[in-house]
Amino acid sequence: MVVSGSGAPLVWITRPQPGADKTAAALADAGYNFLVLPLTEIVAFDPEIDPGDIERADFVVATSANAFRFLPEPLLAALADKPVYAVGDATRAEALARGFVHVRSADGAVDDLVSLVSRAEPVSARFVYLCGKVRTGDLEHKLVGSGFEGGLAIVYSSKIVSRMTYLLTDALSHRRPDAILFHSALSARAFADAVSTKTEDLFENTRFIAISARVADALPDTFRPRVMVATAPNEHALLEALRATVPSSGA
Fold this sequence. Notes:
single chain; 21% strand; alpha/beta; 5-stranded parallel sheet; 2 domains; Rossmann fold; 251 residues; 6-stranded mixed sheet; elongated
């Protein structure tokens, strides 16, 4: 835990690394105490994709920075010269860091990404969607529905960390959180599964901040009155929701 001010609210960060540390830095700057408590982790996944699909692809799409963090070198080399369309600025930054040159950000959600691609690429152009094993937003189907062709390259997967109950019990032994941030439905489900009816009262004064309605839906029904959903599915909106719900000493 990092103390950024006496009496500052304590916020649990449940997202996996390396994103958890970025959120922690933002919370420290905003005057919050925080505890980095990843409930999930990201692991590499061996992509099963026809080399011909890579060769024929005209562009690349991605909705997570993890798509580039876990992109294997052979696939990176095969795609490096193709234009990339990213859902947001964090994903764009990671693509640039891996050596892609022609990268554009939709700075929004999946529908914004589809609109960006539709304006930039001719109908029937082929895409490769770099993604995780679990996907949301139906990006590939929306692109196909807009006249594009392509396929998936699954390069990472998310899994729940072990010793979940112990981690939560240990965290609660120090101080109960004023707020908990949830960046994914998997983290929210892991938390919901680990919190029994015997321990729910330990969170009676906790606010739950979800990055989207889908993530909020994974939390226990008894917590719903204290759930706040970000206005957009991104980090900036999530932290804005936190500040509106649980003001910090630096607000």
